[in-house]
Amino acid sequence: MMETIEHQFTPTIVGILEKHFGEYAQAVFSASALISYLNIKTKTATKGSKSRASFGNLYALYVLIEDYVKGGFHTSGSYKDYGGANFGPLFRRQRELPFGAKLQNHHLNTRLNDEFKRFYPKCGYEPIVRDDQNGLYWINENALIVDLGKMKFNLALASLEIIHAYAAAKKSAFEGFIADCEKLEAIQRKQPEQVTDFIKALLAPNVDARIFEIVSYAILKAAYSAQSIWWGLTCETVKEDFLILYKTGRTNANDGGIDFVMKPLGRFFQVTETLDVRKYFLDIDKIQRYPITFVVKSHAPPEDVATEIRRQAFKLYRVEKIVAKYMECIEEIINIPILLEKFQEVVTAGRLGDVISEITIQSKVEFNYPHADEDEETSTPR
Fold it and tell me: Can you give the pLDDT at residue 382?
């Protein structure tokens, strides 16, 4: 019997199970590791746009179960003879789903199985069965079939409906978030305090990583745009240029890129929410140890963050020379208090409208709103 964690989306899950299994709904819930896992992964459904969304592992499940249902295996019982689903169509299907446009292959390959094992180490099976050599995938029927003794139930259709309901709830939350941004953009001159409080709330440690990155970018772009440098190849060509911060791609894309780039100084910025040294050093290695500024979703002072990174690095390498070379590449650490300071400077300078406008634009791009690509052209280099 699985331990049930109750949260605000749990009644929705129970309602879907009742629709499919009637009086046996609660027994199915209690007996199924898959439903228990879906319950855990959907706990942010009703917490609004600022809470962390969880789509990668859910969509890995979704596309495999969907393939299972399309083959009619939920009724035919002949899945044991199925030749498997090819990776390419599964991967493309993940990216067609709401908020799935930037998902990578990790969830299908390892992350879902690894996380499932951490939650249910005694379960005895993994949700995804793979043939690595031929790139073929199956959903493990052990996850889909619940045996209550006299009766067996197949969870395929109910599982798809649960994941769909979660995605719909998150989509509604993000639509509400963008509507709020547009409303605040319209009133920012008349009610600046309301807009300021809204933006400050988006810099909390528990805010969704994508929104934190968007808000960080909007604040830093506005803050740096007030600064200028004089430069030129010769004395005769020296000129004044204001600093421009560019966003280089979608948020949390796991695409090996760098989040922001500054022109003309050529500074690189990476947004992170972890203090795991391996993440920092991986980002440094990606750009061949070019200096990089980290924007950290933390209230910890920058010197404490640096100390912790160094401590972990020495534990990992045990060679001071190697650790020092990596640490020298950290140009600056910008934490939440520093972002708030820069935001206050922007507000004082009368640039609040620039920040809320940029948040609106980038949120539309991130959440695939109509005409988002047109907006993206104004702030993201191709």
Answer: 28
How many whole angstroms separate alpha carbon 276 and alpha carbon 281?
9
Cβ atoms < 10 Å from Cβ of 92: 11
Which tens digits make up the pLDDT trace of 25-46? 999 999 999 999 999 999 987 6
Which residue type does 252 have?
A: N
* Sequence-ordered list of residues with C-beta below 8 angstroms from that of 272, at least 6 positions apart, any chain: 279, 280, 283, 294, 295, 296, 297
Which residues of the chain fall below pLDDT 50? 50, 253-255, 371-382
Q: What is the pLDDT of residues 90-145, one digit of tens each?
A: 999 999 998 888 788 889 999 999 999 999 999 999 999 999 999 999 999 999 99
Do residues 295 and 224 lie in contact, with contact meaning Cβ atoms separated by under 8 Å?
A: no
Token pair 């299994």 is found at 21
* 215, two tokens: 């808000």
Q: Where are the alpha helices (DSSP H) in the chain?
A: 10-21, 25-31, 33-41, 56-70, 73-76, 87-96, 106, 112-119, 141-144, 156-187, 192-201, 209-224, 277-286, 302-317, 320-328, 336-348, 352-366, 372-376
Query: In this structure, what token pair is assigned to residue 372?
Result: 């988002």
Q: Please state the φ and ψ torsions of residue 294, each to the nearest 5 degrees.
A: -100, 130
Cα–Cα dist 87/354, whole Å:
43
How far is Cα 283 from Cα 285, in angstroms, rounded to an integer? 5
Q: Quote the crossing angle between the two packed helices 352-366 and 156-187, to the nearest 10°.
A: 160
Per-residue HEC secondary structure of 249-269 comes to CCCCCCCCCCCEEEECCCCEE
Give the whole-angstrom CA distance, residue 282 versus residue 287. 9
Contact 292, 258 (CB under 8 A): yes
Q: Is the full-model pTM beyond 0.85?
A: no
Give the strand order in the sheet containing 268-272: 244-247, 260-263, 268-272, 292-296, 330-334
